[in-house]
Amino acid sequence: MVGKDAHEIGDRLAEYEFVVRNIRQGIWRLDADGTIVFVNPFLAGWLESTPERMVGRNVREFLPGGELGHEREADSDRFECEFVTETGLLRRSIVVSSPLTGADGSVGRVEVVTDITAEHAVQSRLVQEVQRMAHLASRDPLTNVFNRRAFELALGDWAEEAERRPFGLILFDLDGLKAINDRLGHEAGDRAIVQFAERLLASVRESDLVYRIGGDEFAVLVPEVSQQGLSEIEQRLRECLPFDERLHDESVHVVASMGSAHSAEIGATIYESADRAMYGDKRRRRVSDR
Hints:
- It is a single chain.
- The chain is of the alpha+beta class.
- The chain has 2 domains: 120 residues, Beta-Lactamase, CATH 3.30.450; 151 residues, Alpha-Beta Plaits.
- It is built from 11 helices and 10 strands.
- The strands form 2 sheets. The chain has a 5-stranded antiparallel sheet. It has a 5-stranded antiparallel sheet with strand order 7-8-6-10-9, sandwiched between helices.
- Helix 7 packs antiparallel against helix 8.
- The longest helix is centred in the middle third of the chain and has 22 residues.
- The protein starts with a helix and ends with a helix.
């Protein structure tokens, strides 16, 4: 009877060994120090190695940076893990890990490694594509500053927080753009718009947000600024934004009318107030140019 049981156990072990060595999934055993005690051919090949070269080496040799991840340290039984092959390729996997007590009482681990490199790459590309589409949805294609849709969303958010986080708004309208388009063509007009956007970006603070909200209209949201600070920023922009640009061998002076408003005195009507101030500036320019 004992001989029969031993024979059955031997047959069962042979079956297990056959499965482990031929399954299209990675399996290895690690001792308490992370040394590889056994690795099946699939996992060795996946790591661009062989069982003979891997047994006796530490698992850290196949981990980026040579460090065990927090998942193993916390004895998690299922986690994602990145491996590095012998030739330096990075591969992604799902690892199912279980403690394994040796005959001497030491606790190692047996782990099943499932390749998800391709799935992870597809997921990463999808995330990048979603981010790219979100970027395009919020950006003006000509100048790459934020567009009107992004402006309206941001203005609504800032208006709701105005009591706690005061802010300013500066509107700009390019003077004479229609004349540039009529005289030199829309390509020249587009170039003037792009140059103005670049100068505006270079002139505002890093925390300020620049938007193109119309053909020749721009806006800057100035977060967490006092009324005095907003006036100083507007004055500085009046001095540094006008510029001369050579378009189709003709020198063109590019300048914009400006108007600003502060949330402390305007509140929800900040856009209308800044717009009135901007067109008041435009009217004054027309009178002074006569």
